[in-house]
Design a protein that fits this description.
The complex is a heterodimer of chains A (287) and B (807).
Chain A: E1 7-9, H1 14-24, E2 28-31, H2 37-42, E3 50-53, E4 63-66, E5 69-73, H3 78-83, H4 85-90, H5 92-98, H6 104-107, H7 112-117, H8 125-132, E6 135-140, E7 143-148, E8 153-155, E9 158-159, E10 166-173, E11 180-186, E12 196-205, E13 208-217, E14 224-225, H9 227-233, H10 240-252, H11 264-285
Parallel strand pairs in A: 1-3, 2-3
Antiparallel strand pairs in A: 4-5, 5-10, 6-7, 6-10, 8-9, 11-12, 12-13, 13-14
Chain B: H1 9-16, H2 28-31, E1 48-54, E2 60-66, H3 68-72, E3 76-80, H4 82-85, E4 92-94, E5 100-102, E6 108-109, E7 115-121, H5 124-133, E8 135-140, E9 167-168, E10 171-172, E11 178-185, H6 187-196, E12 199-210, E13 219-225, E14 230-235, H7 240-251, E15 258-261, H8 277-289, E16 293-296, H9 299-305, E17 308-320, E18 326-336, E19 366-373, E20 380-382, H10 390-408, H11 412-419, E21 428-429, E22 435-436, H12 441-452, H13 454-469, E23 475-485, E24 497-498, E25 501-502, E26 505-511, E27 517-521, H14 530-542, E28 549-553, H15 570-597, E29 604-607, E30 610-613, E31 616-622, H16 623-632, E32 643-648, E33 657-667, E34 673-683, H17 690-709, E35 714-715, E36 721-722, E37 740-744, H18 762-779, H19 793-802
Parallel strand pairs in B: 1-16, 14-15, 17-20, 18-19, 27-28, 34-37
Antiparallel strand pairs in B: 1-7, 2-6, 2-8, 3-7, 4-5, 9-10, 11-19, 12-17, 13-14, 13-16, 17-18, 21-22, 23-33, 24-25, 26-27, 26-32, 29-30, 30-31, 33-34, 35-36
Helix pairs in contact in B: 10-18, 14-15, 15-16, 17-18
Classes of the chains: A alpha+beta (287), B alpha+beta (807).
């Protein structure tokens, strides 16, 4: 559990950070909270020669909520997500999800940017961002661009971010006031990744579900946007038949690995249960 | 005017903080302030670091070890392999079980993460870099990971070093992967009784491989002083004196030239009883370099290479009359010991005290047979928070009694009550030969059932089952009952030894002139609170307040010889030695007091903290006064000073027991279990410190929860170990841990000087079957007889699915 040797860099500006990544090339890795990278380095599964630490980049800090426009700086910690009342007002599912990540000590250091950018299917924020249809702001040598979360994840630890780019912010258009939400996660213990988890956001129009959106965590090699499952609820009365159809559609797109949490069959089953329970909870909460 | 009031008797007792006082732990002042001194806190000038190259294979031939690149790396000083240890005859070391274990792989590796080479470097970073650079060429061999296939005709030979040896440390070996067969009881008579029984149940009960996983891993600092020839090793040792003797025997360094020191230890739970390759390699490296060498394993190394626990496959068979009187028990065990037999049991007991498996019941005839086999897994088989193989035995009998209850359609509590050994039967000799010292099982059982409202719980469960049938809930309620008997305090020297060292223990007391004291013991605390509780025993014995008594353990240069702390033996054995040494102090104090008061010894009586003249209590000498007199008076016929030492050889084991009840709810759709209630009634004899007992019970129950609900070390078919990191291995946090309700009865041990029996391990022994019985009970009405541990989400769901409950 001792990492290999590396050089440590601590840029003061985004430009400086991007410049470092350009000049250092493939051997450099950015580090935010470090809760994914440092353990990998201790196991020598990651052996970067240069670490570019983003913690002095003030531009990457802070939460901004303006009406339904929400911007999260990449270096915002999970704890800051939990502590922000403005965020809890506009988009409460973010707090609910952040509270289910690891434990308080980790949430004081782990960042939302690291959580979404790492491309680990076990992280909780990617599934949520898929459900919220968030966009990621990326800054690289060729300037700034935005990529939808739904276009970002290619495979485990492979994303649309190129090695020279830094994910600087997450932009969310919060669902309208009165929406229902729920993040349901089954895990073996505190600090564990999900056996399966589901993020559900619903907007009701009277007794009809006007918009539904479902994201899934840790049931494939990336987080998943459950498009067909979302469609099965949209326009429905959220009755048993619609929920059963959504559950079946969600389970159909899973492809989990067997691991200590159980075989694939079980994890797919739990995914269905999480969708079913999250929809029920979100419906209860919807105005 | 002298207005000073005389303290009352009650005030004097209170001031002592002796037996029965919930005195706060004196250790916690340093632990809670981060001022503990653990082995990794030790930093010596010029200290080097060692780190292991470990095998990626479960079974492979080591073709070549190339250390050239490692030796060229900055800071790397040496790379030690088995070839370097062979001339010293240290490439193998004796295990506590009479086997040998490779210190560094001798031509082949037998389990994943086995030690292959030891890199010595200037700091731990350079050592880790050096490990990466050692190139080892392996040739993979077929692995044996299923204990049931270890003795197949075509099973690969694992231990080539034992080739042709048909006689093992515990009798004949019937196969090249066989270690021992051990049995006790009347096999033919038991079989006959089973044939004649009205009802017989049989079940394979597997207790999965787990690991004690103390928060602090194993480690040491070895320092050879080339000037005086003395080797000092600071390390995480649960038995420092035994380590010294073993070290002397295998290195030929005279025993007085070896000093073993156990500093603060961050939990042991059996993991730190054995001797590990790291200790030997660090010592050799220090002898060779002349500099101190530190070796500290990381968490993955601890979980995958140092001693595991359990891994017992137990086939139990119980016969009973149709009205529920148990008539016979047999149990055949297949014990998976891994690559080397490194169990930490008393030497004559290769299956520990497994023969306590008749439990708390009056079973007229029984038989237990255990076969140990080698597999391509890490060695160990230690007693993880239990006495030797006692939790395995308790799990087997407590599950089997539940299985029998289902078969008889009887309530499991009722069946237990019917078969409990009766109060008037003590001392009770079990069918397998143990003499249970004392007990009042019925009282404990009745108190437990009444306190939890057992009848009402069963009614609630009946309603829950109806509601489940009606589709009104997807949750099933389970009630688990366990009544366990531990056997601790090893042990009488006549039958308990480790490598020939009798399992007595010791205490040495020195009273200072001003009436305070120091006591040194042969045991070593790893969190049990010895500095607190042993002072309490002495306070009551010699009338000096506990706060004025220093307890010191763990340094073999100063502590009297003892066999260490594990198997709940500290209180039964060293605690007894403490009381006996205290009584020697008191006997001499009585003579001094008699001299000072100018009366005959027999005219004095002891009263709390002083000797007083019978019938004239105004004339007295306090222990404080007597202590001073022992240093400044020339008393005819008495040596100056006030010291005593006692080596205590217990006449028998002690037998703590308890009644545990668990209530939980199972979500059949997710397999998630919610422990609603857990009640633990313990009888550990005389209670020294109720607060520490409660803490011990909380800790043991939490480990029982961990084992029953999630801890497991497994190996896949290629010999890769799984569950070897805390990502998967379940260490519960406060979030997963339910509220524990503790209770007690108090039935003193008749043969222990203060009647204490030991308690640290009871909650693990009783807790595991209580949890497992509760999970099984939740499904019992659907015909389930047994589903195994760990009861993690997917296995519970699979059980529900197998019963057709998941829809």
């Amino acid at each position: 559990m001792i990492p290999g040797a590396f050089d440590y860099h601590r840029p003061k500006t985004v430009d400086e950070a991007v410049g470092l990544l350009s000049s250092l090339g493939d051997d450099a890795t950015v580090v935010a909270g470090g809760h994914s990278l440092i353990p990998m380095m201790k196991l020598r599964m990651a052996v970067p020669e240069h670490l570019v630490d983003l913690q002095d980049l003030d531009d990457l800090k802070g939460i901004s909520v303006s009406g339904t426009a929400v911007t999260l700086g990449a270096m915002v910690t999970q704890n800051e997500l939990i502590a922000s009342n403005a965020l809890a007002q506009a988009c409460p599912i973010i707090r609910e999800t952040a509270l289910q990540i690891a434990d308080p000590q980790i949430r004081y250091v782990g960042t939302v940017g690291g959580n979404v950018a790492n491309g680990d299917p076990g992280n909780d924020m990617p599934g949520l961002m898929l459900a919220l249809d968030a966009a990621y702001e990326l800054v690289g040598p060729d300037g700034t661009r935005e990529v939808r979360a739904r276009d970002f994840y290619d495979a485990a630890f492979f994303t649309a971010r190129s090695d020279g780019e830094i994910l600087t912010a997450i932009k969310i258009s919060a669902p309208p006031a009165g929406h229902g939400w729920s993040y349901m996660k089954q895990k073996r213990k505190i600090g564990d990744y999900a056996t399966a988890a589901a993020a559900v956001v619903l907007t009701m129009d009277g007794a009809t579900c006007a918009i539904a959106s479902i994201g899934l965590t840790n049931v494939a090699d990336t987080a998943l946007f459950a498009e067909a499952a979302s469609a099965a609820l949209t326009g429905s009365d959220l009755g048993d038949a619609a929920i059963a159809e959504a559950v079946a559609a969600a389970k159909a797109i899973t492809n989990p690995a067997q691991d200590g949490r159980g075989p694939a069959e079980f994890r797919t089953h739990v995914c269905g249960m999480m969708v079913q329970r999250a929809v029920a909870r979100a419906a209860e909460r919807a105005a | 005017m002298n207005e000073q009031s005389t303290p009352t008797s009650a005030e004097r007792v209170e001031k002592l903080q002796g037996l029965g006082s919930s005195r706060k732990r004196v250790e916690d002042v340093r632990f809670t302030q981060g001022k503990g001194n653990y082995v990794d806190d030790i930093k010596l000038p010029g200290m080097l670091f060692g780190d292991f190259v470990r095998s990626p294979y479960g079974h492979a031939r080591v073709k070549k070890i190339d250390a050239e690149a490692a030796l060229a790396a900055p800071g790397v000083l040496a790379v030690i392999t088995a070839e370097d240890l062979k001339p010293l005859n240290l490439h193998y070391m004796p295990t506590l079980a009479g086997d040998v274990q490779a210190v560094l792989a001798d031509e082949k590796v037998l389990f994943q993460n086995q030690e292959v080479a030891f890199v010595v470097a200037e700091d731990r970073y350079a050592a880790a870099d050096g490990v990466e650079l050692v190139e080892v060429e392996y040739e993979g061999l077929p692995v044996v990971v299923d204990a049931f296939k270890a003795m197949d005709d075509d099973a690969p030979v694992l231990r080539e070093d034992l080739e042709g040896k048909t006689e093992g440390a515990h009798g004949p070996r019937k196969h090249h992967n066989h270690i021992f067969h051990w049995e006790v009881g009347d096999q033919a008579g038991t079989e006959k009784a089973l044939e004649e029984a009205d009802v017989v149940v049989e079940e394979l009960i597997t207790y999965p491989r787990s690991h004690p996983s103390p928060i602090e891993t194993c480690g040491c600092v070895a320092s050879m002083d080339k000037v005086n020839g003395k080797l000092t090793i600071w390390g995480t040792f649960q038995a420092p004196h035994a380590v010294r003797t073993v070290a002397s025997l295998i290195t030929n360094i005279a025993e007085h030239n070896i000093r073993i020191v156990s500093p603060d230890i961050g939990g042991g739970f059996g993991n730190k009883v054995g001797v590990y390759p790291g200790y030997i390699c660090a010592a050799v490296a220090s002898i060779v370099t002349g500099q101190p060498v530190k070796w500290i394993e990381d968490k993955i190394e601890n979980l995958t290479a140092t001693a595991f626990a359990r891994d017992y496959h137990m086939t139990g068979k119980i016969g009973a009359t149709k009205d529920g009187r148990i008539t016979a028990l047999s149990c055949n065990v297949l014990a998976d010991h891994g690559a080397f037999d490194a169990c930490a049991d008393p030497t004559k007991f290769p299956a520990g005290f497994f023969s306590i498996c008749t439990g708390s019941y009056d079973i007229p005839i029984a038989y237990a047979g255990v076969d140990g086999v080698y597999t391509n897994k890490a060695p160990g088989g230690v007693a993880y928070r239990c006495s030797f193989r006692v939790t395995e035995a308790a799990y087997m009998i407590e599950r089997m009694v539940d299985v029998l209850a289902r078969k008889l359609d009887m309530d499991p509590a009722e069946l237990r009550t019917k078969n409990l050994i009766k109060k008037e039967q003590f001392p009770y000799t079990s069918a397998l030969g143990w003499e249970y010292d004392s007990g009042d099982y019925q009282t404990a059982m009745t108190k437990a059932l009444e306190t939890v409202g057992y009848t009402a719980l069963r009614e609630e469960q009946a309603a829950n089952r109806k509601a489940f049938e009606a589709g009104e809930t997807r949750s099933l309620m389970g009630i688990g009952v366990a009544f366990f008997t531990e056997i601790v305090g090893a042990g009488p020297v006549k039958n308990c030894d480790i490598l020939g060292l009798g399992m007595f223990d010791s205490c040495e007391i020195r009273i200072h002139p001003t009436g305070s004291a120091i006591a040194r013991l042969g045991t070593i605390s790893q969190g049990q609170g010895h500095a607190t509780t042993f002072a309490q025993i002495l306070a009551s014995e010699i009338g000096i307040p506990a706060e004025d008594i220093t307890i010191e353990e763990g340094d073999t240069d100063t502590a009297p010889y003892g066999l260490g702390t594990y198997g709940s033996r500290s209180t039964p054995v060293a605690g007894a030695a403490t009381a006996m040494a205290g009584r020697k102090i008191r006997a001499k104090a009585q003579m001094i007091a008699a001299y000072l008061l100018e009366v005959h010894d027999n005219d004095l009586e002891w009263d709390i903290d002083r000797f007083q003249v019978k019938g004239n209590p105004e004339r007295s000498k306090t222990m404080k006064e007597i202590a001073f007199a022992s240093y400044n008076q020339a008393i005819p016929g008495l040596e100056p000073g006030l010291e005593a030492v006692s080596y205590y050889d217990p006449p028998n084991m002690t037998y703590p027991y308890g009644a545990y009840i668990c209530v939980l709810d199972v979500d059949v759709d997710t397999g998630v279990i919610d422990v609603r209630r857990f009640y633990a009634l313990d009888d550990c004899g005389t209670r020294i410190n109720p607060m520490i007992i409660e803490g011990q019970v909380h800790g043991g129950l939490t480990e029982a929860l961990a084992i029953s609900m999630g801890q497991e070390i497994t190996y896949d078919e290629t010999g890769n170990v799984h569950g070897g990191s805390l990502l998967d291995f379940f260490l519960p946090t406060a979030v997963e841990t339910p509220v524990w309700e503790t209770d007690h009865t108090e039935t003193p041990s008749p043969h222990h000087p203060i009647g204490a029996k030991g308690v640290g391990e009871s909650p693990n022994v009783g807790g595991v079957p209580a949890f497992s019985n509760a999970v099984n009970d939740a499904f019992a009405h659907f015909g389930l007889t047994h589903t195994g541990m760990p009861h993690d989400h997917w296995r519970v769901w699979k059980t529900a699915q197998g019963l057709g409950l998941t829809g």
